Amino acid sequence: MKFKIGDTVAVLDDVIKGKVIAIKNNAISIESSDGFSFDFLPNELVVIKENQSELSKYSDISNENLLEKINEFSTKKNAPKFKSVTKTDQIPPMEVDLHIHQLTESTRGMDNYDMLNLQIETAKHKIEYAIRNRIPKIVFIHGVGAGVLKTELDFLFKNYHVDVYAASFKKYGLGATEVYIYQNPKK
Known about the structure:
Layout: E1 8-11, E2 17-24, E3 27-32, E4 37-40, E5 45-47, H1 52-56, H2 64-77, H3 87-90, E6 94-97, H4 100-103, H5 112-132, E7 137-141, H6 148-157, E8 162-166, H7 169-172, E9 176-181
Parallel strand pairs: 6-7
Antiparallel strand pairs: 1-2, 1-5, 2-3, 3-4, 7-9, 8-9
């Protein structure tokens, strides 16, 4: 990839973005939005051509989850107006918001690894609480982001006897996962 002075770039493995201020041999110097200078190799950077808020307007167009939800919705319009209601449909799901600002007062002194661990530990405690208390479903609100938390949650859910689905698009958008817990009958 060719870089030019003045290009807006982002670092692939870090949360740094800024403008290219110099290109020397195999190193590219950038000035971050905070005013700090950093040197990176070209394969560590990517040029940002569009503003993130502009991109988010169109990001769902080719998203498979969204297309599935749209198709599901359009087929439901033609479906009969009656539905069998089960007991678990009547119970509102337990909601767990895993956004970091909901879990701690301040993230000062925490790096991304610490924040992710707090989110995963919270999810683990909540799912175990639901199992103990025979709560049939939980909605974990994780947001869209880069998908790291969702991937870690999917890995966590493999340790439990549960079914995992995308939560209601109408209520949560693409940033939530619904978990149905298989309960052992009481003896």
